[in-house]
Amino acid sequence: MQPEVENKDERARRIARHLLRIGAVSLSPSKPFTWASGRLSPVYCDNRLTLGYPDVRSDIAACFEAVMREERITCDVIVGTATAGIPHAAWLAERTGLPMAYVRGKAKAHGRGNQIEGLAPEGAHAVVIEDLVSTGMSSTAILTPLQEAGVKVEAVMAIFTYGLPSAQEAFVKASMRLLTLSNFPALIDVAAESGSLSDDDLTSMRAWYRNPALWSTDRGGR
Question: Which pTM was predicted?
Answer without folding.
Answer: 0.92
